[in-house]
Please model this.
Amino acid sequence: MPDLRELLHFYAEAGADTPLEDAPVDRFTAVEPARKPVQPPAATRQAVPQVERPRPEPQPVAAPALNKTSVPDDTKIALARQLASSATTLEQLREQLASFDGCNLKFTAKNLVFADGNPHAPIMFVGEAPGREEDLEGVPFIGRSGQLLDRMLSAIGLDRTGVYIANTIPWRPPGNRTPTPLETEICRPFFERQIELAGPKLLVALGGPAAKALTHAPEGILRLRGNWKTHRTAAGIDIPVMPTLHPAYLLRNSAQKRFAWRDFIAAKIQLRALTQ
Model:
């Protein structure tokens, strides 16, 4: 057994130099609880007045600014109707359309694409809107789709000297996108007046947007095509309409050309019956 003196010396070098009590002490419970602050007597306490802070008034939230230049309003539509109805000739209608600033497409297009062909022809072809080539030249259907249209006309014994060609929208939409319903409505008075002044006996709607603009039919072009519809002018004259597939669609879907061929044959037969 080691000497007690040596053991005490070992504890001293290890830092245990405080003697302990014989009984263990729980240091966690031995801590004196914190004293609560002494409250002065009620008689000596002074009431501290409560100062009510003013609440911040709610700030009005500004409404988001509307881009009025991108949405034709009723005033512009009314102006379009007024200008279109005042034109008594196709040339006057073209001048009124060229001076009209109510459609935003005018400011992104290079040229007004009004019409091509014979304005006195008994048959009128109506497309949707100009493409890139048409925008550059100011003539409808002169690009690849126009070349296909010329071949289709030739197949039924017609050419541009015997037909009248126009669009529901006279300006090219950016990126050749589909015209919006608002853009169609702002241009409607002009293309409807164009049909009235040209006075065709038969209309051929090239593509779904043109067919819907002329007939107000809700169906898609694949359901509409080949079925005779009617376009009623402001004067109450009913003109038969043959909806068919757009040449641009046929360039992407060659298998559908046989349906367009049937529609063109039906239009040729109907035209012959109307002109005899």
